Amino acid sequence: MRMARQGRTKAGGWRPTPKQAAVLSALAECPPETPIVEVCKAAGVRRATLYEWLNPDHKLYDPDFVKAWDDLPLQLVRRSISRVADAMIRKALDGDVAAGKLVLEMGKVYRPRGLEIGGKVTLEQLVAGEDPEDSEEP
């Protein structure tokens, strides 16, 4: 299937041009703190070209590319969330209280003191080994 100039296919869907695909790929592979100029250099695309695709006032503006550019970081987070959770669980098991608290909050097992608990266990109850069923609700 032959792509049109701005990445449009005959079926009306959007596919990035080869240069846009290179930028998105470089963004996905570079560490988050990588400057835009380095992402562009890795992709072999001028930084000005990237900004033209992102600028609604420019004739090369591509709203589909903007959406792909904006969505990519969230996609990367979603792909790595299980590794992050595993690392936090390992830290919690090694005694890191902040990691433990975060893991419990993520698992919706714990809510910080002062918030409505709604049948949830407080960190203090967990540390003390108390059964939340035995305690009175605030």
CA-atom Rg in angstroms: 23 Å
Rounded average pLDDT: 78
Structural class by sheet pairing and helices: mainly alpha
Distance from first to last alpha carbon: 64 Å
Helical content class? 40-55%
Work out the number of β strands.
0
Low-confidence stretches: 1-5
Q: What composes the largest sheet?
A: none
H-E order: HHHHHH
Count the helices. How many? Answer: 6
Shape descriptor reads: elongated
Strand % is under 5%
Fill in the keyword field for this structure.
138 residues; mainly alpha; 0% strand; disordered N terminus
Task: Outline the fold blueprint.
Layout: H1 18-29, H2 36-43, H3 47-54, H4 63-93, H5 97-106, H6 123-128
Helix pairs in contact: 1-2, 1-4, 4-5
What this model shows, in words?
The protein has 138 residues and is mostly helical. It has a domain at 1-79. 54% of the residues lie in helices and 0% in strands. The chain has six helices and no strands. Helix 1 crosses helix 2, helix 1 (18-29) packs parallel to helix 4 and helix 4 (63-93) crosses helix 5. The longest helix has 31 residues, at 63-93. The relative contact order is 0.07. The model is unreliable at 1-5 (pLDDT under 50).
